[in-house]
Amino acid sequence: MFRSYYQYIPEGKEYPVLCRRLSRPDGFATAILNYMWSFHKEEILLDWNKIAEQYGYVHIGTCRISPDHKFLAYTLDISGNESFALQVKDLESGHIIPGLEVEGVVSLAWAGDSSFLLYTVCDETQRPYKVFSMELGSTLVDNLLFTEKDMSCCVDITSTKDGKFITINSNSRTSSEEGLCC
User: Fold this and answer.
1) Which sign does the torsion angle of CA 74, 157, 160, 114 carry?
2) Cα distance between residue 56 and residue 170, in whole Å
3) Where do the Peptidase S9A N-terminal domain residues begin and end (predicted)?
4) Per-block average pLDDT, block size 10, for the chain (182 residues)?
């Protein structure tokens, strides 16, 4: 089964909508089955407009779908001060997972098995400097993985193209370092 993810701005609205469609591989018989079983039905994962109606303002910073397609992690600014809070949505139930909200989050990356979410947080000057890992379904405190002590450097995280590793990147204007994690 294939999943197509996309976003668009609905007519007459100000903000985008993040969606997905499920489909099976191409072929005439498959096309008929897809039509009959509504595999091409659009599923709205995140509607910025509804959030803006609730809070008056919204800016979504980063969105990441888990590799198993069951969770959506995203950062949300509802104040306009560019301070983003992490939220994780269970895509099967459609609900935000309570207790996972973290303030000051900049970048996100999922572990390949979708059990851990890594994220960076900012200091008081809005410099991303710490990397944490969060285990979904656990009540344990998030695990601090890395702290950048050099005030001239910022930290971000990314997944490798094959999704097997997450890199922790420390960058300044004149240098950069990269390390593998998970």
Assistant:
1) negative
2) 35
3) 4-178
4) 84 94 65 57 91 92 94 93 92 89 92 93 94 85 92 93 90 83 68
Which tokens sit at 95?
């609900």
Q: Token pair for residue 86?
A: 């992490």
Q: For residue 150, what are the CA distances in angstroms to 9, 104, 129?
A: 40, 19, 9
What is the rounded CA–CA span in Å between residue 125 and residue 101?
20
Confidence (pTM): 0.85
Q: Which of 11, 111, 9 is nearest to 60 (CA)?
A: 9
Residue found by looking up tokens 């050099």 in the block: 150
Q: Which amino acid is at 7?
A: Q
| Residues 67, 64: Cα–Cα separation, whole Å | 9
